[in-house]
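Form 7-S
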Amino acid sequence: MSLDPKVAARLKRNPDGLVAAIVQQYDTGEVLMLAWMNDEALHRTLTTGRATYWSRSRDQLWVKGETSGHVQHVKSVALDCDGDAVLVKVDQVDGACHTGDRTCFDADQLEIALG
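Output:
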């Protein structure tokens, strides 16, 4: 099976065939991470309920938590208005970041210079 053609037609992929996947905790709205999806990753996410992404560094699909146990149970998936990003709302088990942190956005807050 492959991604529903109606969904595939709406996607605007980057030159590598990927769309950004913004991952959010479904009940609190906490932004957990940014990942990448190709058509197969999105198809698997939609059909299995397990968040599946494309690893640019490993050049392969990966299911979040498959080796770490830090799984993401998918609650909903939505395309943005331009079709170049998806919002994946999940129930995160333990940390979402590969460092073990709850979110990938915990560290290195940038200073904002206000005029």
